[in-house]
Specification:
Layout: H1 12-65, E1 75-76, E2 85-89, E3 102-114, E4 121-139, E5 142-152
Antiparallel strand pairs: 1-2, 2-4, 3-4, 4-5
């Protein structure tokens, strides 16, 4: 008695079910891996954004103190930005020794000043002072640096 191996279809459903189960398992593992990777990316983005906001806060402090050019020490940012966010004036290498704001020199040009009626600004020529403010922010190891040049005046 000769058996036809190819004609026997017993057990085919089990093999197909196992192959489908293997494919679904691979899809599930891939989805978990992708989700974990995306979570890490969003966490890094949040930390980087906190560092950027801390450096922007230093820029605002610098703008508020012009024409004084004293350094802005490493200060903790508010809780709205992040519990462990710090900022200082200078580059990331100046973390322990903040650098003063830089006076670049005089600048002659046009600017805006409040009109006599105190309701609008007028375009007037004038003498300005130019400053450069470097602000660095840090949050959970991420560091962002912002550099701004400002004309201050007219005088």
């Amino acid at each position: 008695m000769e058996r036809n191996i190819l004609g026997n279809k017993r057990g085919v459903a089990l093999i197909i079910a196992l192959i489908m189960l293997l494919i679904l398992t691979l899809i599930g593992i891939s989805s978990i891996s992708t989700t974990t990777f995306e979570t890490k990316i969003s966490g890094n983005e949040r930390v980087g954004t906190n560092a950027f906001y801390a450096s922007e806060a230093v820029i605002q402090l610098g703008l508020n103190q012009l024409p004084v050019t004293t350094p802005i020490d490493r200060t903790k940012s508010g809780a709205k930005i992040g519990e462990d966010s710090y900022g200082w004036s200078g580059t990331p290498q100046d973390k322990g020794d903040p650098k003063p704001l830089q006076y670049i020199g005089p600048y002659s040009g046009y600017g805006f000043e409040l009109s006599d009626s105190s309701t609008s600004y007028v375009h007037t020529p004038g003498n300005f002072s130019r400053y450069q403010i470097n602000g660095t922010g840090e949050s959970f190891g991420a560091t962002k640096e912002v550099q701004v040049q400002v004309k201050y005046g007219p005088f």
